[in-house]
Amino acid sequence: MKFPMYKKETTHEKYRNDPFRAVNFKTDADGDLICPNHKKFHLAYRKAVKGNQYGRQEEIYECEDCSGCPYADRCKKTEKNRTIRVNQELTEFHEEVLDNLESIHGALLRMNRSIQADGSFGVIKQDRWYKRIVRRGLDSVQLELYLVSIGHNLYKFYNKQMKLQQAA
Ligand code: SF4
Question: Which residue lies with its CA nearest to atom 6 of ligand 1?
Answer without folding.
Answer: 69
